[in-house]
Write a structure and sequence with these properties.
Length: 129
């Protein structure tokens, strides 16, 4: 599955659509930055609320972000869809995510797909492992 980079703030970035299943069974699509340096997929707490989650009921952990600071995230097990593939994944939600977009990290995603960034063609490819 290939996803073209999206233009944000004058730059092309590996941002792709991902569907998350809400508590009431509705699939909702969000955009997220594919980040091979991120251990976890992290979305804003507001998205957790849109999904019907009580965000702080999740497992509380701390992760280090790009500037070296720690943020609190709450982990939840959700059904997700990337491209045509549906699977369960651990997804974190945080009130402190301040980079302007959601993140798709390695846990449960990169373990399922070989992910290839093609900067020349400005596409990111997800291949089944």
């Amino acid at each position: 599955m290939e996803f073209p980079y999206q233009q944000r703030h004058g730059r092309f970035l590996p941002i792709i659509p991902i569907k998350l299943k809400s508590v009431n069974g509705e699939w909702i699509t969000f955009d997220a930055f594919v980040d091979s340096g991120a251990s976890y997929s992290i979305f804003t707490a507001e998205i957790g609320e849109i999904l019907g989650l009580n965000v702080e009921d999740g497992k509380k952990i701390y992760v280090t972000v790009g500037d070296g600071s720690l943020i609190t995230i709450y982990l939840h097990e959700l059904e997700v869809i990337i491209g045509e593939k549906t699977f369960n994944a651990t997804v974190g939600f945080s009130k402190q995510l301040g980079i302007g977009f959601n993140i798709i990290g390695r846990k449960d995603i990169f373990e399922r797909f070989k992910v290839c960034f093609n900067e020349k063609e400005k596409v990111v490819e997800f291949m089944d492992i």
